[in-house]
Amino acid sequence: MSTSKINLVMLKKLFIFTVIMFAFGYALVPFYEKFCEVTGINNLLQPDILVEENWVDTDRWITVELDANTTGIPWDFKPLQSSVRIHPGEPVDVLYEIRNHTDREVNGQAIPSYSPRLLERYLKKFECFCFTKQVLKPNEVRQMPVQFTIEPGIPADVHTVTISYTFFELPGGQKAINDK
Amino acid sequence: MAAVHGDVHGHGHGDHHPTGIMRWVMTTNHKDIGTMYLWFALSMFFVGGTLAMGIRAELYQPGIQILEPELFNQFTTLHGLIMVFGAVMPAFVGFANWQVPMMIGAPDMAFARMNNWSFWLLPVAASFLIISFFVPGGAAAGGWTFYPPLSVQGGLGVDLMIFAVHILGASSIMGAINIITTILNMRAPGMTLMKMPMFVWTWLITAYLLVLVMPVLAGTVTMLLTDRHFGTSFFNAAGGGDPVLFQHIFWFFGHPEVYIMILPAFGIVSEIIPTFARKRLFGYSSMVYATASIALLSCFVWAHHMFTVGMPVVGQLFFMYMTMLIAVPTGVKVFNWTATMWQGSMTFETPMLFSIGFIFLFVIGGFSGVICAIVPIDIQVQETYYVIAHFHYVLVSGSLFALFAGAYYWIPKWTGRMYNETLGKWHFWLSMFFFNLTFFVQHFLGLAGMPRRIPDYALQFADFNMVSSIGAFGFGLTQILFVYIMVSCVRSGEPAPEKPWEGATTLEWTHLPTPAPYHSFETPPVIK
Question: Which of B363, B369, B360, B376 is nearest to B391 (CA)?
Answer without folding.
Answer: B369
